[in-house]
Structure formats: structure tokens, C-alpha cells
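Action item from last week, closing it out:
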Amino acid sequence: MDLLRNIKVPAELEHLHSLIGAIGDCAKKQGLSDKRINEIKIAAEEALVNIFNYAYEEKVGDVEVACKTGQGGTFVIEISDEGRPFDPLSLAEPDTTLDIDDRQIGGVGVLLMRKLTDELRYRREGNKNVLELVVDLTQQR
């Protein structure tokens, strides 16, 4: 994979705008449509806000965002943190057919990430959670 941009900042909400802006800039350089860029930004925002809110219990840690081009014409946003282990892909898909009052809390953000990207990948690398949001550049939506 070729690294386009890498940013490491404290995992705090005040950094959300700059991280999403950087992701959007990288996506734009890949020739993606404005609609597709907005979808990618929404998926990344879901992942980042989850890290800001849940990864670190009492201390503030860092979040790292790397934009890369991958094999086979992919654009990859790699988001990593050193928070508690959490595999978002292990969550069951929420039942969106239920009335809002009857639904289980949580999981909708991960569902949104799955719908707005072409592939989601998770791995635990040492003490890091690594989530990859993969966009197929050969398939424009």
C-alpha cells in the first residue's frame, strides 16, 4: 500500500473536523464523486466518534488516521487506537425492521460504516485496534 497521508492526534472530539477534512482531501485526490466522498466521511466519522467516546476509559490516548491506496484499485482509510480491544465487526447487525423503541441500543453506526464502504476490516495489532474502511476505486456508486 502507498501512504497518502498520516495524522496522529489525541482522541478528542475537537480533532474530528480536521481528521474528516484530511480524509475528504485524500478521497478527492482519488477522483471520487462528491457523493462518494461524503459517504466515506460519514463512515469515518462514525468510527472516530466511537473511538473518542469508548476506546480510552479514564485517560486520553491517541488516534491515528492513515489514507492509503491499496492493491487492485482501492482507497483505504486506516484508523487505529491503543484503547481497549474492540472488534466492531463482531457486533450482530441490528434489526432495523423493529420499532425504534424495541431496538437494541448500539450497532447502527457499524451498520452505517458497512453500508457506506465497500469493505470493513478489523485486526488487533499488538496493543492497537486497526479498522480499515476500504473503497473500491474501480466501482463508482
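Closing note: The mean pLDDT is 88.
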